[in-house]
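Moderator note: this is an archived Q&A kept for reference. The question asked for a predicted structure of one protein chain; the sequence and the answer are reproduced below.
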Amino acid sequence: MIRPSTRGPGGRFALVALFIALATVVFGAGPVPAADTGGQWWEPTARPAPDSQINVTGAPFKGTDASGNVRGFVDAHNHLMSNEGFGGRMICGQTFSTAGIAEALKDCPEHYPDGSGALFEHLTGGDNGKHDPVGWPTFKDWPANNSLSHQQNYYAWVERAWRGGQRVLVNDLVTNGLICSILPRDRGCDEMDAIRLEARKSYELQDYVDSMYGGPGKGWFRIVTDAAQARSVIEQGKLAVVLGVETSEPFGCKMILDVPQCSQADIDKGLDELYGLGVRSMFLCHKFDNALCGVRFDSGTTGVAVNIGQFLSTGTFWATEKCKGPQHDNPIGLAAAPPAMAEKLPAGVTVPSYASDAQCNTRGLTRLGEHALKGMMQRGMMLELDHMSVKAAGRALDMLEAEEYPGVISSHSWMDLDWTERVYRLGGFVAEYMHGAEGFIGEAAQKADLRKKYGVGLGYGTDMNGVGGWPGALGEDAPNAVKYPFKSFDGGSTLDRQVTGERTWDLNKDGAAHNGLVPDWVEQIRLTPGGPGVVDELAKGAESYLRTWKATEKHEMGVNLASGQPTSASTSEWWNPFVNYSPGRAVDGDTGSRWASEWNDAQWWQVDLGESRRVGRVTLDWESAYAKAYRIELSDDGTDWRSVWSTDAGDGGYDTAEFASQQARYVRVYGEKRGTGWGYSLYEVKVTRS
């Protein structure tokens, strides 16, 4: 949602648009049935009339290939219901309406009579100050690839994407409390309320489609809550829809002046609720730093605008530091602030300047964020890395690796690509943003060897309804122009130009104006040099996504053999009678407590497992006072020790020491050289079999 300036046409988005009044979407009621068509299983028996055409013939691919793998594409990042978020008045039009297409696909009232009142559209789109506001049936000016405030996910367009080969769609429920608070709205701005509404509307869409096919469970749009259910749906030739969450303040976890506005209990309750709604993947932060993690910056004018939004939301601007590794966040926008945004800042407050050699957010994954991530792992949910700062993403990957947890996803090119192999090594999944054909192929080529190494397919993230911008028109004379009609990737369906009302869309002339043109975009990729191989990888995308999901569900959290067991240490720091730094604090299950030694190099911490146990892995969660050189030792009697693992290049954070598993009763961490001027300090020590 809300694309960065470094990624195509979405860079024109600016939060100045937040202050523009949009119109209320009016909801209708009452079905408008059509006559029984008597078609095949993929054709409805009672499509509303009038309605959009699909312009696809032939049976959707059902079942699996000769190897037992599902075939089809995965849109790993879409926003079917974002018109219900942001106070209900940012995206004009609805994904469906029981009153029919004329009610669903109409513009915002202030866009009439000539679009001159659509300031949000002018600032973020391509209408040059005016557009024809009429949607159904003429659609003269919208939807369009550069129109960022009009509905792109009308259900019939989603249907065409399914008929053209898509088999998995991740519907990210999305909103932003700050945008809602500034825009005119017809509902409250609590982000969790918006998520609940969008989830409910998603299930209502499923019911709406079912009603066309004869009743519950018979439609092609199927919301799924586990990998086996998704595979079953796909093997029927239908679309498996996964619910995700992409929002700035999940569970109310806002940060104000660096003070969290939520607790661990709020997070636990929120995760339980989301899981109950069917949500299986989510972002922990988006656009603004929150109480869970710091974000990856936006650049250019967008960056300035979002940074102002960051201040208005949290009371602080982004803060940067020099990066500690090759990964880095996007450069912060240093352009002049748009006047309409600057005037919202308090008197005397201006956007700070930033050093060009400091491109990393100082904020990473907080202790509350770590609690949320552990809660997601305990529930078998998948983490979305995109939008996390390098510091937050690195810490999250450390935690995932310590648990060997495969549930990690990058869904739309918004992660440092240097993390890709770590994601694949865990068993995670990666998708690219829906760039133009050449750009998409170029990005795919960067990591082709890694996909081959790990035997994975590729996904795309359309970010439809996500205020991002989409591939433009290349022209009918372009070498890779789509020739209509064309065959789907599997050869089973034939697709012609898509028609809705009086408007016929052609990818060559219109670009990727709406979701129904995704199959046309895939065909354009196929016709581009290097494209056939990429399409083949995309056809393996659904299978790869399902494998990541299934492995996530099957994962069992390792039991900490050290939890609550007797501990001892060479020393324990004591300087405050109200703070306890005793060795037992490192195995009490509370990541807010810790053991701390005196400020000398040769220090140790040990645990008695109570009896001889097989041990093969020790995970250390260091406080800022960490060990640069240390070793892991085992003992059968607490007297004679044997070293099983060591390093002289410790850098703090999460460390996982793995070694050939063996029997031992005692485990010791022996610090040889400190990494700081303080002592050694451990939040948690986890000892597992392997």
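Archived answer notes: DSSP finds 18 helices and 25 strands in the chain.
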